[in-house]
């Protein structure tokens, strides 16, 4: 009687930064548009997505190990400046509401 779990209701993804699994709701979807990493908080942009915690520490790890080009299957280095700005703003906004 231990069959059903809630896993199906909350699909899990791996954060490309810290490599920990989390539900999609906890992670920020990233897509590559040309050679730029673009945050996709609503999950509406087409194409392959990578998932990362919306935290600067996870973003740093992902950038350092070049996880984004690998996860998004693009050859070149990706510009993560806009993504970093987004994550920093999100982090500040979340702290402000606590
Ligand atoms: Zn993470």
TrEMBL record:
Classification of source organism: Bacteria, Bacillati, Actinomycetota, Actinomycetes, Kitasatosporales
InterPro entries, A to Z: YlxR, YlxR-like_sf, YlxR_dom
Pfam families, A to Z: YlxR
Chain ranges of the YlxR domain: 13-77
Protein species of origin: Streptomyces cahuitamycinicus
SUPFAM superfamilies found in the cross-reference section: YlxR-like
Name this protein carries in UniProt: DUF448 domain-containing protein
């Amino acid at each position: 009687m231990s069959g059903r779990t809630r896993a199906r209701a909350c699909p899990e993804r791996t954060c490309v930064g810290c490599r920990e699994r989390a539900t999609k709701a906890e992670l920020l979807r990233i897509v590559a548009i040309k050679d730029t990493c673009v945050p996709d908080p609503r999950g509406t942009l087409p194409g392959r997505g990578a998932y990362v915690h919306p935290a600067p520490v996870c973003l740093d790890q992902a950038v350092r190990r070049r996880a984004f080009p690998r996860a998004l299957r693009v050859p070149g280095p990706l510009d993560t400046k806009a993504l970093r700005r987004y994550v920093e703003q999100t982090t500040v906004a979340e702290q402000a509401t606590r």
